[in-house]
Amino acid sequence: MATQTDFAIGIPENKVSVDQETAFNYSQRGQWLRAAVLGANDGLVSVASLMMGVGAVKNDVKAMILTGFAGLVAGACSMAIGEYVSVSSQLDIEVSQIKREKRMGESNEESEDEIEELPKPMQAAAASALAFMFGAIVPLLAASFIMDHKVRLGVVVAAVTVALVVFGWLGAFLGGTPVVKSCLRVLVGGWVAMAITFGLTKLIGSGGL
């Protein structure tokens, strides 16, 4: 019967170690990468959409900035709390499973490794909140120093577009996924969100509400 050692014959040792290290790295990245990428994209898109919505009916730069800042604070808190609750629930489930295996005598070396790799709620919450704020800062900075209303809206869209591409590329690079597909998905989603918010707010505003 062939064993694992038999299958390893003919494979360079450095190749095996590189593959194992790559798999380990991607596994370890999973927890914080998901929270960080989602947080940054949410911060960028939601705050930019809020500012575009306000910009659709008001020319005042202060109104846009205050709206964006309020969205940054509220969104970061919401992301942190949501991520903490979600990851804590996942942690409870995994801990319960490990305890169940121990009671049934199924605990082994792999179970001990699983304990070390359990999700960390506070780490995920902090990563999510910080990433959200990092993404939200982009449209805020883009609009802060431009007084002309139309130019300001254009600069916000341009800055968000660049940031969306960068975030899409970064997520693909760190996660080992196709770059073009990731960038297009993030970019189109951001554009659609801003367009819908701007259009609906403009429509409601023109109705005198």
Description:
There is one protein chain. This protein is mostly helical and 209 residues long. The protein has one domain (35-206). It has seven helices and no strands.
| Helix-strand pattern | HHHHHHH
Task: Estimate the mean pLDDT confidence.
Answer: 80
Low-confidence stretches: 1-9, 13-28
- Dominant shape: elongated
The largest sheet, given as strand count, sense and whether it forms a barrel, is: none
Round the Cα radius of gyration to an integer and report it.
23 Å
Give the amount of beta strand, in percent. under 5%
Distance between the termini: 77 Å
Helix and strand topology:
Blueprint: H1 4-8, H2 13-55, H3 61-103, H4 109-116, H5 121-144, H6 149-175, H7 179-206
Helix pairs in contact: 2-3, 2-5, 2-6, 2-7, 3-5, 5-6, 6-7
Give descriptors for this structure.
209 residues, mainly alpha, elongated
